[in-house]
Specification:
Elements lengths: L3 E4 L5 H11 L3 E6 L2 H11 L4 E3 L7 H13 L4 E4 L14 H29 L2 E6 L2 H5 L5 H21 L4 E8 L5 H10 L2 H7 L8 H11 L11 E4 L7
Parallel strand pairs: 1-2, 1-4, 2-3, 4-5, 5-6, 6-7
Helix pairs in contact: 1-9, 4-6
Bound molecules: NADP nicotinamide-adenine-dinucleotide phosphate (NAP).
Length: 241
């Protein structure tokens, strides 16, 4: 069955891969900040529309949801993927960083999930997928703010999984390990050495965005209806220590 899917952070990286994967069998609506990239991707994957805007500003999250819902005729699947990483020792983390990261990585997913849950409860079917991080599941030194924002998603997932279960709605979080995207390029070039990072990963490899896209496709399928409130570590063994 074709589902109506809203994906944030779809211009590149993991979100783009999810949009490409899901657009072959579903109706997708994509969001990000880079209008040109969204326009091109929309044509390329035959998406049902896009919204460009900074989710940190004004009521853009509301405008996004309203546009997606009216373009798709409703939202069956909400994929909260847009996010930002920050490598920052705790004493150097600024109040602006705290406000920005918690807003983008936790508050906006919460608010979009609330709007989506309202529609999903009425139709008694829905899927909410959050893209968390292994840093939220096990903690990452010098990334306490990022880890806290992603751990918040895991708590939200458990609570909403319970709250929405009786309405046929499942809520899950995927926690990727290191994936090579613009987000990690920045972190690696600023602070970490790529080989040292690979040495720490039990499988000695980065996760591919397509692996996350395929797990997302499974989690929104009817076969996965029994999986809810879970956070699934897709991390090449990183969570094992
Ligand atoms: N890469 C990893 O190793 C890794 C590991 C674990 C978890 N994750 C999580 O996976 C998700 C995607 O990461 P990625 O690696 O694919 O990152 P990415 O390549 O940097 O892509 C980030 C996406 O989020 C959008 N975005 C960022 N800030 C935004 C804002 N203020 N308003 C609206 N959209 C915004 C970007 O849009 P524009 O391009 O239009 O600006 C882009 O589409 C994030 O939540 C991240 O925390 C990543």
């Amino acid at each position: 069955m074709k589902r109506r899917i809203l994906i944030t952070g779809a211009t590149k990286g993991i979100g783009r891969s999810i949009a490409e994967e899901l657009s072959s069998s579903h109706r997708v609506f994509i969001a990000g900040r880079d209008e040109k990239k969204l326009e091109e991707l929309c044509k390329q994957i035959n998406a049902h529309g896009f919204f460009s805007g900074n989710l940190l500003l004004d009521d853009n999250y509301k405008k996004l949801f309203e546009k997606a819902s009216s373009s798709l005729g409703g939202v069956d699947v909400m994929i909260n993927n847009a996010g930002e990483y920050i490598w920052s020792p705790v004493e150097k983390t600024s109040n602006d960083d705290i406000e920005r990261l918690l807003k983008l990585n936790l508050e906006i997913p919460y608010k979009l999930s609330a709007l989506a849950a309202k529609e999903m409860k009425a139709q008694r079917w829905g899927r909410i997928i959050n893209i968390g991080s292994i840093s939220g599941a096990v903690g990452e030194a010098n990334a306490s703010l990022y880890s806290a924002s992603k751990a918040g998603l895991i708590g939200m997932t458990k609570a909403l999984g319970l709250e929405l279960a009786e309405y046929g709605i499942t809520v899950n979080t995927i926690n990727p390990g290191w994936v090579k995207t613009d987000l990690t390029e920045q972190a690696l070039s600023d602070n970490l050495n790529e080989q040292e990072e690979l040495d720490c990963i039990p499988q000695h490899r980065f996760i591919k965005p397509e692996e996350i896209a395929k797990l997302t496709a499974y989690l929104i399928s009817d076969d996965a209806k029994g999986i809810t409130g879970q956070s699934l570590n897709l991390c090449a063994g990183l969570s094992l220590g």
